[in-house]
Specification:
Layout (H helix, E strand, L loop, with lengths): L24 H10 E6 L4 E3 L7 E7 L2 E6 L4 E7 L4 E2 L13 E4 L3 E7 H10 L1 H27 L2 H16 L4 E3 L4 H8 L3 H13 L3 E4 L2 E4 L2 H10 L1
Antiparallel strand pairs: 1-8, 2-7, 3-6, 3-8, 4-5, 4-7, 9-11, 10-11
Helix pairs in contact: 2-3, 4-7, 5-6
């Protein structure tokens, strides 16, 4: 069950997404007055594909996956970490969410009324430019991911994901995995059997060590080489 108890205040909040640092105290107060603070438990849906973009999200704590729902198969294209900002791909197009976001860990987020957010965007040029920069950075990330998936073999794809988790998500070569093997498969456009096979090979070759959910990257240079040549 989601918890709606407020823990933070917008003005002076150290957990807000960096994009909000460009707002004045008055603008932050406007956001404070229209936001809802919610805790989601693992497995709970934060955003549902096809629903209306009524709110934008400042992700304060936890971990979530963002994915496209297909016919019987999903594609995970991004993980959401503290400090991330999510506005919805259809906010200025058809006011619909084009993906689903689900909590992987207990996650604390701020839901901000999209109409108030848009109003502040239109009145704050610097904030608007930073929002465009943020959006375009994400577009570049998605295009790069699409290129990697289309050009790399199975070993290269798994190596890419392990490096992404190590460098961008956990910031360590030794981490507790929040994703299951089927979810790794959904991130690499592979079957779960193929993903499990490659992970087992990496363990046998002592590239990684896997103990239930604990992952240790033992040979980072070889993993990088597989990613590069894959």
């Amino acid at each position: 069950m989601s918890d709606f108890t407020s823990q933070y205040q917008c003005v002076g909040c150290m957990l807000q997404s960096p994009i909000f640092k460009l707002l004045s105290s008055e603008e932050l107060i406007k956001i404070e007055e229209c936001r809802v603070e919610v805790t989601y438990h693992p497995g709970e849906t934060i955003i549902k594909q096809g629903t209306a973009c009524t709110h934008v999200i400042s992700f304060a704590h936890g971990l979530a996956k963002m994915y496209l729902e297909g016919d019987g198969r999903n594609v995970i294209f991004r993980l959401i970490v503290p400090g991330d900002f999510v506005s919805g791909a259809g906010l200025f197009v058809n006011n619909r969410h084009h993906y689903t976001m689900t909590a992987l860990r207990e996650s604390r987020i701020c839901l901000i009324d999209s109409l108030v957010f848009i109003d502040i965007l239109r009145s704050n040029q610097q904030f608007w430019e930073e929002y465009l920069r943020h959006t375009q950075t994400r577009q570049i990330f998605y295009m790069d991911k699409l290129l990697r998936l289309s050009q790399k073999n199975s070993r290269g794809r798994i190596a890419d994901i392990l490096l992404y988790l190590s460098n961008d998500i956990y910031k360590s070569n030794n981490f507790e995995m929040d994703l299951s093997t089927p979810e790794i498969a959904e991130m690499t456009s592979m079957s779960k059997e193929s993903a499990a096979k490659i992970i087992k090979e990496f363990c046998q070759e002592k590239i990684i060590c896997l103990d239930e959910k604990a992952v240790l990257i033992q040979n980072i240079s070889l993993l990088q080489d597989i990613s590069k040549k894959g």
